[in-house]
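Researcher: Please predict.
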Amino acid sequence: MTRIWYIMKWGLAISSLGMAVPPAAAQSPAPVRTPIPASLPSWDQQLDLLKGIGDELAAESGRLDPPERKQEMYRYVMGAVADGWLHYVMQDPARPTWMPEWNYALNYGGPNPDYAYKHTLVDPKGIYRISGYRGTSLFVEITQQIPEFLTPFVNGKPQAPSPGTWDLDMLKIGKDGYFSVILSAERPVGYTGDWWPLSPKTHSLLMRQTQYDWSHEQDPRIAIVRLDPAQPAGPAEISRRIGTLREYTTSLIHAGMWLTRWYRDHVGVNTIKISPIMTATLPFPGQVYLDGAFQIKDDEALILETPVPDKCRYWQILLADDRFATIDWVNRQANLNGFTARRDSDGKFRAVIAARDPGVPNWLDTAGEPWGIIQMRWNHCSSNPEPIVRKVAFAEVRKNLPADTPVVTAEQRHAILLKRWESAQFRRLW
């Protein structure tokens, strides 16, 4: 099972609201106990399948030297194994629950730091209820996914787009923020509440909880339950999934490395353009991705300049390394958004991409990565401009910025990064 994201890697009982209960939901399914086959592999046999994977992927990534870089790659591989456990071994469309998806610890597919991603498996023949409390996040969207969506570009050919994306603000939300919606292939007979059609191609849901202001916006609280009877995965199926963790892990990491190299080779270095891949697959309606590569030395910098659309629900920019792992946004200023970015007096957004602090508000920290990815998102904007990127000597940065660009001192930067560290932990990721 291949995985990537950049992709891109989202109540009350119906009867208590005076609504008719779908026939399949009238009675909770009885627990099913599946006999454990005696032929299941042992612990050591299953773990043996992962032997050597760290060194193999470190070699493929080119992160062998120095030793510290190799150890960091080991941690990255371990995280991919954990990703497989959470989103493949532990998930069950018969007993769904929202699992944390791409984030600071599961850093795959260039995760957007402004998103708290959640994921669950579903059965397209099942009947589900999603319910919870809206919170104050900028927006919350749930996208139906098919296996092809997780590999949106194979051999240069775009795959089928997602069956659809739902926005929580499409629902009836109570004064206390509570909502409830049924997902099923057909609207249940007699049910008059909110309903979303579940595509026969859908096998998982991705939720994106988006915040501009990490410190003050409140993440939603959301649950998913299955209403029709279904048998959960048994021991043999769980054993089979564990047995495929090696393939899961390697394909997840391969996908990220392939994508970064594709962008570097096909979009260009030290530039950013509207993404040909994400535009082809259109995973999220109204969202336009821009991608490109950066490659600069420590004594160089990139100045990125762009107008900002007059109307825009949300926009952001981030840096990722050559594996499509977003650069450490908790401890470094590796991303900015429409709330945190400073716009100049002419209304334009200008950022400085560099390994060292240039002493300006809109610094994007490469963390010393030799090369990596620049990615932006325009979300429901009145226009989708492509920024201009210029390489300059690091010592010449200020000469290439407006004269009134503020100075950020070392003390001020320290305070900014402490605030970022604190605010990132306020997000509900787990």
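Model: Residues 14-247 form one domain.
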